[in-house]
Structures are given as C-alpha cells and as structure tokens.
Design goal:
This protein is of the alpha+beta class. The protein has 24 helices and 27 strands. Helix content is 49%, strand content 21%. It is elongated and about 230 Å long. Pfam families: HATPase_c (PF02518), HisKA (PF00512), PAS_7 (PF12860). It catalyses: ATP + protein L-histidine = ADP + protein N-phospho-L-histidine.
Amino acid sequence: MSGVIVVMRQTLLSCTSLARKGLMGLAATALAPATPGLAGDGVPADTISTLFELSRQDVAEVTAMLALLGFSVVAAIALVRTRLAAARKEARLRADVAELQLQADRYRALLFAEPQILIAWPAGGHRPQISGDTSMLVPSDQPQRILAFGTWLPPEPALQLDRAVEALREAGEGFMLNLTTSHGHAIEVMGRAIGGQAIVRMRELSGLRRELAETQIRLKALGDETESLRALASALPWPIWARQPNGALSYVNAAYARAADARDIPDAISRNLELLDSADRTDLQRALGVGGHFEGRLPIVMGGERRIHDVRAFTLGGGSAGVAIDASEVAALTDALVRMHEAHRRTLDQLSSGVAVFDGQRRLAFYNDSYRRLWDLDPTFLDGQPDDSSVLDRLRASRKLPEQADFRAWKAKLHEAYRAVEAAKDTWFLPDGRALSVVTTPNPEGGVTYLFDDVTESFALARRYDGLIRVQRETLDSLAEGVAVFGSNGRVELFNPAFAKMWRLSPDSLREHPHIDTVESWCRPLYDDSVAWRTIREAITSIENRLDVALKLERKDGSVLDCMSRPLPDGATMLTFQDITDTENVERALRESNEALEAAGQMKIDFVHHVSYELRAPLTTIIGFAHFLSDPSTGPLTPKQAEYLDYVTKSTNALLALTNNILDLATIDAGAMKLELGPVDAAKAIEAAAEGVQDRLATDRIRLKVEVAADVGSFVGDERRVVQVLYNLLANAVGFSPQDSTVIVSARRTDHSVAFAVTDSGPGIPADIKDQMFDWFVSRSQGSRHRGAGLGLSLVRSFVELHGGKVRMDSVVGKGTTVTCDFPTDHIAQRNAAE
C-alpha cells in the first residue's frame, strides 16, 4: 500500500513540473512582441514557429500528465479504500490468531500436564520436530538422541520400535507399545498419522496405568511362554501328561496318545488311558502324596514292545504332571559301560604301570594293583577314597616322594593338572634311588589320571648306552683302521679321522653327508678300479642279498688296503679300510720263507727216509753176523772178542731202533702209517713194555711201580704201537730218573678213554721248553744220564694222535715229570683217526 502511494506522489510531482514548464513557455511568448528586433512586431518568424511547436508539445505532455494524474487520484482513492478494508481484515485476523494462540497454549498446557515427548515428521520431510521433556530418556542438551532408540532401549525393544516407526512413516500404520528402557523405566509409545504427519508420543507409565501395562506385558509373556511350552510338549517324543486333583487326565501330548494306543489326544483324555500298570501307579501316587515328586525307572509297553522309561512326576497346583523318558538305550549303554568299566579295571590291574584316577573332588576313584605295590600303600586306606593331598602327605611322611624345599608349592604345582587341558609329563627321583615317570592327564569329566612307570632301569640303560656310545665314538676315532658308515640312502652317516686321512678327504666335506658316488669320485685318484668300486656301491645300496664283501685294494701310491663291507641291522652299511701294506710285505717275506722251509723240511724228510733205508740193510747184515759170531757153534771167542762183539750188538740194536723210529715218523708225516686195530689189554701192554727196560732198571737201580686199576680191562687199538708208546715213555723216565729212585706207570679207565701215565722223579722240564719236547730231534738231558736222538716223545704223540687220543705233560722243576696218554674207547673216533 505504501508503495502505491509513493508512485502516485512521484507522478503528481512530474505533472506539476511539466505544467510549470508549459506556463513559462507561454509567458515568454506573450512577452516576446515587446522586445525590439523581433519579426512582425519585432519577433523573428522562426522563433515564433518554434515557440508554437514547443507550446503544442508541452500541451500534449500536460494533457497526458493530467490524464495520468486523474487516474492516479482515482487509483489512490481506490487503494486507500482497499487499504482500509485490509486493515480491518488484518485486525480481525490478528484477533483470530490471538484466539488460536490462546487455545494452543491451553491445549499445550493440557498436553504436557504430564511428562511426555512428541515427535512429529511432516509429510515428505525427514527432520522431525521434538517436543516435550526429553530428559526423561536422554540428556536435555542432546534431544536428537531420542531418535537413536538403541541408546535408551535394550536391543530387541529398540529393533521393535524402529520397525513400528518405519511402518508409521511409510504406510501410516499406527501402533501402541509398552516398553521398558535400559534403566528399568516403563514407557508407553503410541504412533498415529494425523494431518499428513507421523506423530509418535512417548510417556512414562506410573501408578495404575503402569501396573496395568506391566500386567499386560506379563500376561502376554505368560501366554507366549504357555504357547511355547505347549508347542514344545507337543513336539517332544516323550509322553507328557497332566492330571486333575481327582486323578483324571487334563492334558496329554501326541507322544502320550501314541504310547497309549489312542486315536488322538482328545480320545486319550476322554478315555483316561493309562501308561503305567496299577502297582506302579499306586507307588507314584503314594510318592506324590508324601514328597510331592516321584522319580523311578519303570517298564512301559509301547507298540507291543516293553521298554524301560525314566518316569518323573510332581504335584502341580491341585493336580500333578509327569513325563516318561525312554531310557532303554541309556540302560543298555549303562550296562555296557559298566561291563566296559569292569573290563578296563581288569585290564589296568594287569598293567605294570601304576594307575590312579582322582575324580573332580580330588578323591581317589580308582587304582590298580601296580599302583598299590609301587607305593606300598594299605588297601584299606586306598579303598576309603582318600583325597589327593592325603595320599601325597602319607607318601611324604614315609619318604617316598622327591625331596622338596617347599613341599606346599610343589604340591600346588602338581595339582594344577586339575585345571589343565593337556597332559603333563615329569620325572620323580625318589630317595630310595628309583626314578619314576609321572604322566598327569586331566579327565574330560573332571579329575586327573596319574600314570606311574618305574624308569630306573631305563635311565640306567640310557646312561650305559650314552656311555657306550661315547666309548664307541672315542674307540672309533682312535682306531687305526678307517671306518665309514653309509645309510640306506647311500650317504655318509659316520666316519672316523683315520678314514678321512687314509683317503685324503676333507672332514668338513664328509660331515655334509655326501653320497657314495661323490665319495667314489673323491677317492678315484688313489684307486681307479671300476669293478671294485661297483662292488662297493652294490654292497652299500643293494636291498637284497646284503652280504659281507672283502676286497684287497692295491692303490697307485703303492699302499695296500684291506676293505670289508658289513651290513648293519638298521639298513646301513659299514666300510672298514685297514692299511696292510707292511703286513702284505711281511706276508710275502714269510710266504717265501715258508716255502723255503717247506722245501728244506721235505729235503730233510727225503734225506732221512733215504738214509734210513740205506742204513737199515747194512745194520741188518751187521746184526746177523754179530749173532752168528756169538753162536758157540762158530767157535770160541776170547773174552775181549766177546766184549767187543757185545758192544757191536748193542750199538747196532740201538742204531736199528733209531732207524726204525725215523722211518715210523717219516711214514706218519707222509700219511702212510696204518694202525692194525684190535683188542689191547692194558695190563699186558704195560708188562710187555716193562720187559724192554728191565736191564736198564737193574743197571741204574731204579724201581718200577705198576698201578693198574681193576676196571681198566681192554680197549681197541694197535697193540704193537701202544707197547711202543709205553716203552718210549718208560725209557725216557728211566733215563731222566736218578739212581735208587722209582718210576711209576699206571692205567685207569675214564668215561671215554683209557689213560696211561708214567711218572719219574727227575729234574723236571721248564715251562718255556715243555712244548718243544715233542718235536723231532729235541733232547735235553737237564743234568741226567739220558742220552738220545730226541725222537721218543715225538713217536709217543704221533702214535697216540693216530689213535685219536691226546698227550699231556705235567712237570715241576726239581720234582719230576708225568706224561699222560689218553686212548679213546670210541671205536668211531679211533677209526677216523687211523684213516
């Protein structure tokens, strides 16, 4: 309105200005004739013309302005009237607004007479308007947090309210909720769509309304719980029932109806069908009347099959309720578990390990006989189920546990097994010298199982094994022979310094476990024999036919090695290399010497053989002529001739005996001697041999003592050779015995032989030459009168060994010598020896 008035005022001012200009123009025109020098009456024509033109233009403008002025006046009048009408209408509107504001204040005062919160979402808007006292739920300085329902409601109610608000804003669905905040306050939340807005009202419930809301909540929860329980009871496979105070059925589930062979649940209730027999029902009712509950394992016939059920019943209000759980499988499993437990108990009793099981209360639940014997505990004490600490205290009192500086801490650490999840192993060293391996295993159902094993012997064996390994290692390292052990994979597992030195190898390279092919390539510069190396490789890497292989390696440097491969039990192979260069050289020298000695010995035997045969013929002739000359028929001899002839006869007889002995030994060495076996009377053989030395016994004043056991009897042998053996022994004993001494010859029978023994009291034989007395041409007088070629004892041993017997000599220097000859009575042994 004020704008219009301003426009009108400006228009009037313009019109006034134009009118003023026109009038001034007209005045100037009127005054123009009085001015000198003008056209006509002194005014120029063009000036007059111009003035008229200006006058007409100004008149037009004035006319237009006057018309506009008239319109503006009319418009202003109309506008003034309109403004007056608008002012009157605005006054009426202000009165209406004031009235509405007053009513709004009255409604707001009425609305917020009690604590509540209003949240309004305009249509199409996302910024809500929040009114009321928000401090009842969130801090007063943060009212917007009221929209974060999870900050003041538990998760499930918050989710429920969030979904209800979303449905209200999107579809206009109203709701009414009674919720409990996280701080325990009960509130009522109502949502409505009003005037195109979504409005949510929250108010705290108090007094009767709160109790009513809580009751409704409880009733709803109780109804939900009842429905859940009914659904659960209907779904359970176990018969469930409820009875009225008079005993009639008031509820059964489907399992009860099936077990009672009813058509359906109403049929079972209407007919009051029973599962238990009368005696069991009587016991059940009696138990309910006395204690209010009943538990028992009873048989129930279901579907024509008798099964065991665990029946539990209890009083409920004026009636009762019960359930029957099928325990047939449980009973069978329990029986099987009992049998298994007994079997395990019997098995554990047979174990050498001590076993003790403590339950969750740390009391002894089981022990085997090995456990009792290990700790030497009283069975009465163990059968009383003592706790773990009592057992440990008793063992400690009898000094059967390891000595501990802090026994309490040690026991507490041991008892940590009751809270552990894995088994633990330890070793106890007892004061009596025993070592026990202790394994503590936590049981799944609680408690601990102790396993005790006496490992004293194992520890001792381990110590001895370790010591043996160290000794073997030191021994192996100190050996002069090179030793290398190759595993089943053909790689070096063990070697000693001698092996590396012998083949000029690096110990560091050998410690990297090279393969036999690599070791062969390293050793080929010293020994390049492909066949020998292939044999060694096969001995190491072969799986079957693993045998010892012996090789002699003559290397390029002139050394000779004796190689031996030995398969080991674990699949490995041991190679040993021994430097036998010196031995080989000595062996060659000895072989050459032996060949020379054998040739010399053969020459000696041949010489003796030929000489003996060459001597025998003239000796026989000389002996024959000596006997002929001693015969009285040939004529008398002078005493001197007879003496010389006697010397000749004795000498030739001695020479003939020596020749015969040499021939016998040569025959035995040639393997051509054969025995003429037959029965030999031991007593007669001694008598025949004694006759041959009678003259020498008489000459040297030596007594001969013969001791022949009565059970000697006879044996199988060559009688002539046996007599020859005894004669040589007696002649040897007489030769070594001093005058006026005694020579003892004895014969006795043993289990497997007949033993002849000849004992003299001569000077004896030193121990260092005792073994030489049986060699050829070995004769030692030892200061005695004995003289001879040294063939007697050689013949004795040869003849006895031909019989399969043995000769032994026992001699003490200064006290005499005893030679014993054992002739076997086993005919088979004699025959084999003779052959």
